[in-house]
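Q: I have 251 residues here and want to know how they pack in 3D. Can you give me a structure?
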Amino acid sequence: MIVESNSGRKQQLFMILSAFFLTNALVAEFAGVKIFSLEKLLGLLPAQLPFFREQKLDFNLSVGVIIWPLVFIISDLVNEYFGRSGVRKISFITAGMIAWSFLIVLAGTEVPPADFWLNLNSTDPLGRPFDINFAYASIFRAGLGIIIGSLTAFLVSQLIDAYAFHYIKRITGSKKLWLRATGSTIISQLIDSFVILFIAFYLLGNWDMHQVFQVGLVQYTYKVALAILLTPLIYFAHWMIDRYLTGGSRY
C-alpha cells in the first residue's frame, strides 16, 4: 500500500475539515429558525431569573446553536494547520453555499403545490385542519431573515476569530492551543451571538431588544461553556491530525 505524500494528506485533510464545516454550518442555518426551551428539554420549570428592569431571563436558544460549537472547533483546526487564508477560503465558500441553498429553497416556496399533496396532508395527527404548503413556506421564509443575519455575523465573526487566533499564537507560539482556541472563540462568538439575532429577529423579524439580549446572552454563554468543555476534543483532533500528517496512519 502506497503511503500518501504529506502534501496529499494536507489536501485531503482540508477537504474533510471543509466538508464537516460546511455541513454543520448549513444544518445550523436551516434548523436555526426554531427557538427551544432548555428548561422544558430537561423537564425543569422556567428559570425566570431577574434580568433587566421587569424582564425575566429563561434559557431559550436557537436549535442551530446546538451544533455551532463544532463549527468553530473545525475553524480553529483549519486556522492551526492552514492559517488565516484557509479560514477565509472555507468561510467564503460556506457563505456562498448557504446563500445558494436558501435561494433554491425560496424558489421552492413559490412553486404551486400539487393538489394530492395538499389533500394527503390536510389534517394534523389530531384531525385539525392543516395547510402544509403554508407551513412549508412559513418555516423556510422565516429562514431568510436568518440567512441575511447569519451570513453577516458568520463572515464577520470568522474573520475576527482567525485574526484573534493568530494574534494569540504570535504571543504564545505553538504552545497553549487551548488559549488561542478558547480565546478566539470568546471574542468572535460575542459578535456572532448578538448580530445574527439583531438582524434576523429584530430588524427583519418581530422580536424586541429585550428578547435579542436574553437569547443572545444565553447562546453566548452556551458557546463559551462548550468551547471550554470541548478543549480536550481539540487536543485529541490535533493529535490525530499530526499523526496522520506524519505518516502515523495509512490509507
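Q: Anything worth noting?
A: The chain is about 75% helix and 5% strand. The chain has a mean pLDDT of 85.
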